[in-house]
Specification:
alpha/beta; 4-stranded parallel sheet
């Protein structure tokens, strides 16, 4: 099992508060989970082996827009049925827009 924690700079334009949150989470994760992968550049993960037990954590975009590289990566984790955790820093309509590659799995299944 791997925990992959995407830096909020990858998905957010105004990431100041999210970076503080990310850094505090990283401190806690480092105490309890060895080998967490902190990712600032999606290309770091292009050759990663993905398994069902992985946990992929990313911050939602303020505009609901995501790079094609991130969407492709989310699809790969989704196809393996890995756990994907989206962190929304605000309760706004746009930041609550999840990428369509994972939306159906989490919100449309009975």
């Amino acid at each position: 099992m791997s925990v992959i924690f995407i830096n909020p700079k990858v998905t957010m334009e105004n990431a100041n508060d999210a970076i503080k949150f990310h850094d505090e989470c990283a401190k806690l994760l480092n105490q309890y989970i060895p080998g967490v992968k902190y990712v600032l550049n999606i290309s770091q993960l292009l050759t990663e082996r993905i398994c069902k037990d992985d946990i992929f954590v990313f911050f939602t975009s303020e505009k609901g827009e995501y790079s094609q590289q991130l969407l492709n990566l989310l699809k790969r984790y989704n196809d393996k049925e890995s756990r994907i955790w989206a962190v929304a820093m605000e309760n706004t309509k746009m930041i609550s827009i999840f990428p369509t590659v994972i939306f159906a799995r989490y919100f449309c299944n009975p």
